[in-house]
Amino acid sequence: MTRRVLLLSSVMLHGYGVSIVADEWAKELKAFGWNTIIGCMHQDEKYRRHNVIKVGTDPIEVLDLCKKLKIDLVVAQTTPYFELLPSISGHYPTIVFEHGDPSPFFFQHDAVEREQIRQNKIRNVYPHVSRVLASSHFLRYDIEWPSASVVPLGCDHVADFGPKEHSNNANSRPLKIGSLMRLGEGEALYKGVDLYAQLADFFKDDPSIEFQIMGRGEESDRQRWESLGVKTFLNSTDVERSTYLRDLDVLFSPSLWEGFNLPVVEAAASGTVGVAFDIGAHPETTPFLVRDLNDFKVLLETWIHDRALLSDVSQTAYSFARSKFRWSESARGLAGYLDEVLNLKLLALGRSESAPRRVLRVVKREGLVGSTKLIWSKFGISVSRDR
Amino acid sequence: MAKFEELQDDIQPYSHEDNYDRVAQIRHNQLSDTAKKKYQIGLSLIVLNKNTPELLSHLWDNFSALYRRASERNIKIELLLGDTCSSLPETLELLDNAPPGVSVSRNLVYQFSRCNNQLFNLAKFSTVLFVNNDVLFGEAIDEILNAYEIVEAQGEIGVLGAVLYFPDGSAQHVGVDFLRDGKMFGHPFHPGSHLPVTIKKGTLADIPAVTGAFMMMRSDIFESVGGFDERYSKECQDIDLCLRVDRLGKTIKLAHAGHIIHIENGTRVVGEEDWKDRSLFIRRWSSYLEASA
Hints:
The complex is a heterodimer of chains A (about 375) and B (about 290). Chain A is α/β, with parallel strands linked by helices and about 375 residues long. Chain A is built from 15 helices and 15 strands. Chain A folds into 3 domains: about 180 residues, Glycogen Phosphorylase B (Rossmann fold); about 160 residues, Glycogen Phosphorylase B (Rossmann fold); about 30 residues, no CATH class. In chain A, strands 5-3-1-6-7-8-9 form a 7-stranded parallel β-sheet, with helices on both faces. In chain A, β6, α3 and β7 form a beta-alpha-beta unit. In chain A, α2 crosses α3 and α10 packs across α13. The two termini of chain A are about 25 Å apart. The mean pLDDT of chain A is about 90. Chain B has a single domain, classed as Spore Coat Polysaccharide Biosynthesis Protein SpsA, Chain A (Alpha-Beta Complex), CATH 3.90.550.10. Chain B is about 30% helix and about 25% strand. The longest helix of chain B is centred in the first third of the chain and has 20 residues.
């Protein structure tokens, strides 16, 4: 029996991580018996599809929509939809999926307002939904909701070019280091833009290294970066983005807060080592953490002269990302919580799924071997399982 | 995803430090272009000490023997001793009568990483040996000098440790490895500790990391990686250093350089563990260890 989930995401726009997440889940959840309708406030051509619809934030409107579309469960992955969930929780099971928000201390001009939004979620949203999920362990601490369960995201939406070899004669060309971020002023406050600029400035007279940056931005952003000697790519297409990630030698994220950091994982999955500071959820998403810019400088100086080592670390990063972050696994994790929450609701209503139907669904989801392991585990017998 | 969910509570990687503190550290450490120091060929030993006159007396004897033998072999050496506020008269007298080749820095406030980094800044020579004050060289004088020559000659060696013995003859240190699963995933431990030593004298083995109780490396490597990380207050700073060097493509080696004794203050007393240090280590390195396995 297929169920229907309404996934609320403020934007379904090209260049936004949450749009990729919603889109990938919608594709993969089908395999686990869930049809996904994505509700959003802003949408562009890329996501103009039959299962993406515009939805406001009025609870009555959302309830009407749920009724019309025969929705079983509602998931919100962004504000302002988080805040409407308590109003519909009496009618539908609801799940918050947190990608987190940069800490208020980064934003002096509206830190108070941001803190209020955060506190409002802690007091008035999380306690009133069926489940709180998060994309990283870091977020459980950062959102101050330690009982949140973690569902990692995927990265296999990016083209798989295989691991990358850096040939020995690569020593004769500059090492290409790049970053991928939205370039606007708002993001600059926590994206570590100034740190990337410092690094580019430090190496500006060194012909063995070339700095690049890609992201959504204005012409003025390009001028600013190019004045620092950083090759700039604005508002690129998906294909250009994919080629960029593959062609770099190193992707560096100077960001000072991340709930997951999809670009670092995408770069690794494209064969390019992704390096990031030890902040936010980076310890979970890349094996190559640096404690500060000096630490990174040492790595760069080493890799400039040792491309064989760069090949090794790129392959390590590639294997790490490709093996740990798969959308099918992410959807499996999410589907498990959707099933759990829906079954609890049905149980409360005395309409729980029949046992044979439940078994069929689990077999379909887990396969025969997985189902057998699950049954054993019910009897307290642990069977090793690939993660 | 790192195996954080399975970890026991006290080493949960985010439980001891919030993002604000982590950001502050990054902002505090400005990108620096310090000109590389010029080192003379030779060996600098760095030791921290507080009181323990009997150990200091042993150290003076050990170093004097090493100094004499090094002179015979035309190897320049020095000992930089950091005294962390000794007060016992016997110790103070020993400090006043240090043997040739020893420089004493007094009144250091003990913090392993910071004190060792401070002393390193005074080091003149191209190879540095960090050694605990309770490590006794015994008869292994020539072997230690041989180890120095190996580090000087083999540029691919990042860090060289040594087999260390307990006074009862069992192994105290034959390298450090990491727990690969379970509630302590990524946690460093000493395999083979308290067992008979099976490594043959004169061998050089690849290992994941070595203890800071006896750690030899090229000074330019120590300088380039920024020394010991001073965010670790008691534990794991030596293992963190090894992994930072390993990441640069250098090897971590263990030498059997004879019967070197590490008295060590016994097994760490339960309750003295520094969980904040351990949590920091796990946060920094568990994904690296998982990916490199």
